[in-house]
Amino acid sequence: MRKFEELIKSPIPVLVDFTAQWCGPCKAMKPVLEDVKKQLGDRVRIIKIDVDQFGELAQQYRIQSVPTFILFKNGDKLWRQSGLMQAQQLKEMIEQNE
């Protein structure tokens, strides 16, 4: 939990993917997130949080559906969205918040 709080305080945008192993749409997002990471490289950090494994965090951030994405920078929540997304949408949103 403390490690998560430290991670989101990064001056580099941190995209948190709240996910679950049983979630089909979450699995569909894997290549999308890999594409975004490939395009943006060190300009973004992408971390996955399994809501079943880290229920406390899911509760703290009121995650009601997966996948849910939250973008943090310097500990501030800048953006949040649930559901499938295109790589281009994610990339543009991250670039707007760099």
Describe the protein's architecture and organization:
With 98 residues, this protein is of the alpha+beta class. The protein has 4 helices and 4 strands, in the order αβαβαββα. The protein has helices spanning 2-8, 24-40, 55-60, 87-96, and strands at 14-19, 45-50, 68-73, 76-82. A 4-stranded mixed β-sheet has the order 2-1-3-4. β3 (68-73) and β4 form a beta hairpin. α2 packs across α4 (87-96). The longest helix is centred in the N-terminal third of the chain and has 17 residues, at 24-40. The model has no long low-confidence stretch (mean pLDDT 96).
Structural topology:
Blueprint: H1 2-8, E1 14-19, H2 24-40, E2 45-50, H3 55-60, E3 68-73, E4 76-82, H4 87-96
Parallel strand pairs: 1-2
Antiparallel strand pairs: 1-3, 3-4
Helix pairs in contact: 2-4
Low-confidence blocks of residues = none
Can you name the CATH architecture? 3-Layer(aba) Sandwich
Class by alpha and beta content: alpha+beta
Give the integer mean of the pLDDT values: 96
User: What is the domain tally?
Assistant: 1
Give the % helix: 40-55%
Shape: globular
Tell me what portion of residues adopts beta-strand conformation. Answer: 25-35%
What is the rounded Rg? 12 Å
Q: Gap between N and C termini, in Å?
A: 25 Å
